[in-house]
Amino acid sequence: MHDRNFRYLEKQWFVATAAETAFNNFSKWRKLKLSRVLQHHGELGEEPSDWETLRRADFDCLLTFYGIVEIGIMTGFIEEMPPSFRKEHLPLLCDGIVRRYYEWHYPQDLPRRLRERLQSGVGYYVLPKSAELNVAFHEFLKLTKFVEHDGDLHSFLWALDRGFRTNKTVKCDFARVKRGLLNAKRLASALQLAPEERGELDRALNGFCKFIQFCEAVSGLIECLEKTPQLAEAVWLAYGYWFRQLDTNFGADLKGAIRCLTKWKVSSQDTLAFRKRIAEMQKVLRKLALPPLADWQRSQTFGRTSISISGSVSHRVEALTRVVIPKESDHRQRELIKRFRAQRQHIKRVRSRRKPTRRVRSRRRAMMTPA
Amino acid sequence: MTGETHTPRLDLLSAHGAQALWSMSPQGRLLVFVHGFKGSAVDTWGGFPEQLCLHNEAKGYDLVCFGYDSARQTAGESANQLQKFLNELLFNTARVVNRSIEEYDSRLRRESKWNYKAMVIVGHSLGACISRRAMLNQLRSGTGRWPERTKLVWFAPAHCGARLFRLVTAATLGVSLEFIDGVAAFAWPVLKDLQEDSKFLEELREHTEELQDNTPNLCSPLTFWAWKDKVVINGCFGKDKTPFEEIRGASHVSICKPTGNDKTVRLLLKELVYA
Is B77 exposed, middle or buried (0-12, 13-18, 19+ CB in 10 A)? Predict the structure, then answer.
C-alpha cells in the first residue's frame, strides 16, 4: 500500500533522471575517477571540464533525491522502505569519497541523516503521521521542483554565487544584474520577454523576482511547521546551501540587490506600500539566514529575559534555572546552532581561499545555455 | 497521498502543466482551479488544494489545477483552451483520469463508464473571466451540457476590469504599484482584454446577461474580494450572488492562498457540499 508512495517519489526524482545517471556512474567508475569528479572546486587547482561539471551535477540531483526520501520518511509519507533501496543505495551513501563530498565539501545534512537511518535503522524523527504533514510535504516537493528546474532562478543564483556567463559577447555577472535592477525599465522589459527570447541578464532579472517568491514560500512553509520544528529544520536544511550563505557576502549582495529597488521612483500614494514590501523581503531573508530552531530558540530566550527583568523573583529564578540547566531539547538546539556555525565558518574559509567558488548545478545550466 | 484521501499531485494532459489530485473514494465530483495573470497551475494556489483535502467535504472530489499561458495569449484564446481541456476531461473521463492515475497506482483506475455528475470551477482574477468565457462558449455552441452541472466560485475576479500596471507589479514584485518612473506600460496581449472597457469584457457581460436567466449556474454563488484590492475593480457582474465576501488582510495575490481554517476555506467547503 505505502510502497506506492516511495515508487511515486522514485519515478518523479530518480528514474530516468540525472540522479539515476549518477547512481549508475558510481558503480561503473573507479575510485580515482570518482574522487576527481567529487573534489571540491578549490582542490582542483584548475577549472573543471564541462564533462566533470555535468557529472558532478548528476550527483547533486542524487543527493536531492536522498534529501526528499529522508523528509518523506520523517513525515510518514513513506512508511515502508523497500529492502532493495537499502541494499543498493547504502554503499553509495557510505562511500568515503561521496561522504567527503556531501559532508565536508558541500555540507548537506539530509543525505547524512538518511545514511545513518539506513545504517542503524533508527530514525532521528519519524513524526506521527498526519494529514497536515502530508500537505507540508507536498508543498516542500513543489518548492524543490521549482528551485531545481527553473532556468531563470538558476541564472540569478549563478550570478549571485559570483559566477558569470557570456551572452553575445556581453558578460553577465552580479554587478550587471544589480545595474539591471536599478533600472525599472530594464526589469520591466525583461519580465515581458518570452522564456525563449530571454538573454542571460533577462533570465537573471526574472530569476530575482522568482527567488524572492521562493524565499517567501519557504519561509511561509517553515512558519506553518512551528508545531513540528524537526520538520521545519529539515525543510530549511534541504535548501541549506543557499540559506547558510545569507549571512556571508552572498547574502549581503542579495540585500544589495533588493536595496536597488528603493531607487525607483514610484507614485507618492504607493511609496509606503513599496517600502513596506521591501522591508518584508529583507525580513524574510533575515529569518532564513538562521535555521528555524535557532531562530525560535533565540526569540524564546529573548522572551525569558524580558520576563526576568520585569517579572517577579520567582520568574527570574526560573529563567536563570533554565539557562544554567538546559533541558535536553535545548541542548540539542545548541548542538545544532554550533554545527550550523561551524559549517558557516567552513564555507567562509573555503570561499575566501579561492574565488570565485562555483556551484555545480548552476554551471550545468550555464553550459546548456547557448552563448 | 494527502491524508489518505487523495493521490499526490499527478500530471495531466496539458501543455502548461495541469495537475490533479485524484480522490481515492471518488463520488463523481470535480473541482477545477483556474489561475490568473502570470500565475501557474502549481504556484498560484499554494497548498490550497491540499488544504481542502484535509476536510471531509472534499473527500469525494477530484481536484484539478488547470494551467495555461496567461500572459502571452489573449483571454479568448485561454478560454478556448480551458473549454477544450474540460471537454476532453468530461467526455473522455475514464481514459484521461486513468492515464494520469496509473502513474501512481493502477489499482485506483476508474471504470470505463465512470463520469462526473457535478463540477465546481474556482477562478482567480483573470482566471474568473476565462472560466466564465469558456462556460459561455460551451453554452453557445450547444454541445455538451456540463455548464448546467457547474458551479462557479471567484477569488478577486477581474471581470469588471483591472488596473493593468498594478496587476503586473503585483504579479511580479508582490506589491501593486500605479507608476514606476521610466516604465510607460506593459505590452502583454492579454492586458488589453482586462482594460475596464475592453471588448472582451463587454462581450462577457453582454453574453452573461443574455444567458443567465436560462442558465442560473452562470451566476456565481460565492465571490471573494480582497479588502481594498487596488489591482482589480471590485464591482457587481450579472447576477452573481451578493453581498460578496470581503477578506481582510489578504492582497490580490495572497487571497487565493488560504491556509488552515480561513474563512475562504470554510465557505468554499460549504459550496462543495451543495454542488
Answer: middle
What region does A216 belong to: left with phi over 0, alpha with psi -120 to 50, or beta?
alpha
pTM, 2 dp:
0.83
**What pLDDT is recorded for position A367?**
54
Residue B3 with chain A: CB contacts under 8 Å:
130-131, 134-135
B158, B116, B127: which is closest to B45 by C-alpha?
A: B127
Q: Do B176 and B167 meet the contact criterion of CB atoms below 8 Å apart?
A: yes
Residue of chain A nearest B71, judged by CA positions = A192
Range A255-262 average pLDDT: 89
> Which is nearest to B121 in space by CA: B131, B108, B111, B107?
B131
Residue range B129-155: mean pLDDT, rounded:
93
Q: Which residues on chain B place their C-beta less than 8 Å from a C-beta of chain A?
A: 1-5, 8-9, 42-43, 46-47, 50-51, 53-54, 72, 103-105, 168, 172-183, 186-188, 259
- Residue-level length of chain A: 371
Alpha helices in chain B (DSSP H): 48-53, 75-91, 93-101, 126-141, 164-173, 189-193, 199-211, 263-273
* Whole-complex ipTM: 0.85
> What would the pLDDT profile of B52-102 be if each residue is shown by its tens digit?
988 999 999 999 999 999 988 999 999 999 999 999 999 999 999 999 999
E-assigned strands of chain A?
A: 165-167, 170-172
Q: At what angle do helices A200-224 and A174-182 cross, to 10 degrees?
A: 80
**Phi/psi zone of residue B3: left (φ > 0), alpha (ψ -120 to 50 degrees), beta?**
left
Query: Which residues from chain A sit within 8 angstroms of residue B1, using beta carbons?
Result: 5, 77, 134
B129 closest CA partner among B206, B191, B76: B76
Among residues B110, B111, B115, B124, the alpha carbon closest in space to that of B41 is found at B124
CA atoms of B125 and B175, how far apart (whole Å)? 16
Which residues of chain A are within 8 Å of residue B173 when distances are taken between CB atoms?
Answer: 209, 261, 277
Asked whether the beta carbons of residue A134 and residue B1 sit closer than 8 angstroms, the reply is: yes
**For residues A246 and A287, what is the distance between their CA atoms, to the nearest angstrom?**
10
pLDDT in tens, B227-253: 889 899 999 999 999 999 999 888 999
Does the domain spanning B10-273 belong to CATH 1.10.260.40?
no
Which H or E element spans position B121?
A: strand B118-124
Three-state secondary-structure class, residue B6: strand
Report residue B41 as a C-alpha cell.
497551475
Rg (CA), chain B: 18
CA distances from A340 to A108, A125, A144 (A): 11, 19, 21
Whole-number Å distance between alpha carbons of B266 and B221: 14
Cβ contacts of residue A321 below 8 Å, gap of 6+? none
The distance of Cα A364 from the centroid of its chain, to the nearest Å, equals 17
Q: Which residues of B touch A141 (CB under 8 A)?
A: 8-9
On the question of pLDDT at B124 being above 90, the answer is: yes
